[in-house]
Amino acid sequence: MPFEPVPKSKRSCSPIRWNSIRLPANLQALLAASKERTFAANVSIFEGFGSFHSENVEDLIAADEATYKPPAHFPAFAKRILSKSEIARALMAPPENAAHSTLPSGSPTRKRSRCEAMHCGGAVSSVALRKSRVETAPEANALSGAGHNNTDDVTDGDSDLCSDESCFSSFSVVGAWSASAKCQIREMANQAVEPCELGNAFRSEHFNITPAMVLINHGAFGGTLVGAMLIKWLYEEHMEAEVVRFVDRELLPLIVYSIRALSRFLHADPRQVVLLPNATFGLNCAMRMIVKDDVVAFFDTEYLAVYKMMWLRCEEVGASLHEICLNRFLHDPEVMGDNTALTAEICRQLPANCTTVVLDYVTSTSALCFPVFTHIIPALRQRGVRKIIVDGAHAPLQVELDFKALPPESQPSVFVGNLHKWFSSPKSAGFFWVRSDDVAKMHSVVLSHGAGEGLLSEFIWDGTRDYGTYLSIPAIVEFWENQGHDRVRDYCSHLLSSAADMLTIAFHSRRVARHAPFMSLVELPEKLQDSLITATYIQDSLHDIARVEVPVKRIEGRYYLRISAFVYNTPDEYIYLREAVLSVADKWVQSPQRKHLYAQRLSSHAAATATNDQLAAGKGKRSAGKAPKSGDDQKRRHNHKRSQHWDLYIHRALRRFFKRGTLSKAAVRVLSSFIEDMFNRIQTEAVFVAKINKVKTLTAREIQTSARLLLPPELAKHAMSEGTKAVAKYNASRGEAYAQGGI
Question: Where is region (Disordered) located (predicted)?
């Protein structure tokens, strides 16, 4: 119904008598102070984009180190990553005293003490959750004035914009922070820090990892430094104290400061770097470089999500997509173990007139680190490949990046990375670096106020959201500098390679010929190389039975662990992993589940053999079901569908393509057995997928997912369409198969 105003006679609110309203003391003080202020000496020509009132970000990012000045409103709490013990000490700080808990009324211009000026907002921790709420006086919060040199010169006019009343929201954990605790955090942020001992000490001081699980999977989604989470939360509180001021006047210069800090970590020109929510966002932007008639190549080691991006983009614009197969060389030291030979193999498989290559620096599934800058990119450039997109999601901190040192022939068009993995930032943060020649070609998939104003302007703002993760980056950069990049890499790489060797020997399996510094594949024991089992089942068994978090991958028909090593891992965890895997392997061999599946397979093979004998004799098996009764109409006979036996379907398919000559019984039997086994595995995996998706009907979605997971890439990409129909026909001939799946 259309809105109808309420008649004045029926309104319950009394009229506002504007002539009788008087300003309270605090607003009178603000008004008096405003009358003393004067206009700015200079009027900026740049008016900003949208409603922003900050400086031109393109000018800020282009400034050299000598002339660039950090934001005056950069808060002191964001200077350094604090450890958990430091945060606990701050929480146990003595109650605030009268000297800094109240402000005399009527003295709006009184300068506060350093401790008052460093008063900051809350954070969440297990300690804070246990503390009772501390009632604080309406003393002004000085977050807005906490710059590098102005903590002693903050007036009440500034502090009224961020009072405790506004900073302390309804969240009890935020209110648990006393003014003294906030002051303590400010003081700690200015103190020097010593490198933390790697291993258990690092875990207890900087990560919130549950002791109930053994985590050997940092490569999946990373893990956030506790001190970085604190900075992010404090920024949220700071923003909500006066959100318009923060977003319009402070946010963009702070993001520029973060980009410049990250560029120092990457050894890159900040004008070529932008921050992103994650690598997926950046790769979607990079895929726009693919245009009509492009010849695009990718490796079969590519991440599934990136493959889908490429495939959909090529379908959209009319480009061709070609696969370079490298997984088959996983255990071949002569190819995978040699950078020159590996590059030669890539170039050998490169399609003619290739224009674009998408590749990983560190692969996700197979944990391979490719010689991207030293060998592959120069070789691709020599062969005329113009556009090279590198997915470096796992690269930051795991490998040293130095974009300034790259010669032109070694530079990718775009390099995309994640910061929440090994860099250990809060979720979600990523970046990309763009070659200078391609800066004008890069555009965001989300356009807003900065569209068309330059690379940074286009990517710096994609709408209102939490930017606290971006703003924690400078402190994280300094944190890893203090810990020592080489020290961290030496510890992790040594632990990883030693653990991989130990596990390989214990499992009596083959070594992989290449692995990343912090990640590696380890082939599982033969007891778990069973066609009746799936990677998901093994991983879930390790998780549910042994309480160990480690991914299991299926590559070229074999199962592998993908182990990770990071600053908090210790050798005893890999000993535990070894014992857990061997225990699960023994349990699987004797499990009722395996016996049931094995019996089911024997039954299927026996039925297939009998049918093949009939086919060889020229007697195709008719479908089951009653014959139509005399007098039934044509419609009834049409609606009564006859099922077609799978072997007969295979026989007819072979006859379609092999029209000359005859088919031997052995040929039909071998092919039928192979395809039945393959489809049984697809069906089993699809049942697992259906359980995860909580559906009771197997659909094309489950079949396509299973085909992609189980089949070699060159077959899986065809199974996306034709494979769905074939599997559906196969299941129709075996109506009991889905019911036995247990859904």
Answer: 610-642
d(CA 360, CA 567): 24
Residue 493's nearest CA partner among 440, 434, 563, 540 is 563
* Helix then strand then coil, % of the chain, to nearest 5: 50, 10, 40
pLDDT tens-digit readout, 544-599: 999 999 999 999 989 999 999 999 999 999 999 999 999 999 998 888 888 877 77
**Residue 646 — pLDDT band, cuts 50, 70, 90?**
low
Sorted by where each begins, the domain ranges of the chain are: 71-193, 257-483, 485-584, 594-619+643-739
- Cβ of 318: how many Cβ atoms within 10 Å? 11
Q: Residue 428: is the preceding peptide bond cis (ω within 30°)?
A: yes
Q: What is the pLDDT of residues 561-570, one digit of tens each?
A: 999 999 999 9
Where does residue 576 rank: exposed (0-12), middle (13-18), buried (19+ CB within 10 A)? middle
Nearest to 150 by CA among 181, 189, 111: 111
And the tokens for 452? 């068309």
- Report the chain's terminal Cα–Cα distance, integer Å: 47
- CB of 577 closer than 8 Å to CB of 214: yes
Strands of 387-392's sheet in order across: 273-276, 430-434, 414-418, 387-392, 356-360, 295-299, 320-324
Secondary structure (DSSP) of 398-427: TB---STT--GGG--SEEEEESSSTT-PPS
Q: Which of 159-168, 398-407, 648-657, 693-702 has the lowest mean pLDDT?
A: 159-168
Instruction: Convert the pLDDT of each residue in 23-52 to its tens digit.
Output: 999 998 998 898 888 876 666 656 666 567
Interhelix angle 724-732/646-657, rounded to 10 degrees, is: 140
CATH superfamily of 594-619+643-739: Histone, subunit A (1.10.20.10)
Task: Convert the pLDDT of each residue in 285-331 to its tens digit.
Answer: 999 999 999 999 999 999 888 998 999 999 999 999 999 999 999 99
| pTM summary value | 0.73
Report the distance separating Cα 569 and Cα 376, nearest Å.
32
Amino acid at 290: I
Return the residue matching tokens 């089993």: 684
Domain 485-584 class in CATH: alpha beta
Q: Are 432 and 389 in contact (CB under 8 A)?
A: no
**Stretch 462-477: mean pLDDT:** 91
Higher pLDDT, 512 or 665: 512
Contact 395, 516 (CB under 8 A): no
DSSP of 532-595 = T--HHHHHHHHHHHH-EE--EEEETTEEEEEEE--TT--HHHHHHHHHHHHHHHHHHHT-HHHH
**Count of residues in the chain:** 743
Q: What is the largest CA-CA distance in the chain?
A: 107
Fold of 257-483: Aspartate Aminotransferase; domain 2 (3.40.640)
Would you call 630 helix, strand, or coil by DSSP?
Answer: coil
Backbone angles phi, psi at 417, to 5 degrees: -140, 160
Residue 441, classed as helix, strand or coil, is: helix
The two structure tokens encoding residue 365: 């599934």
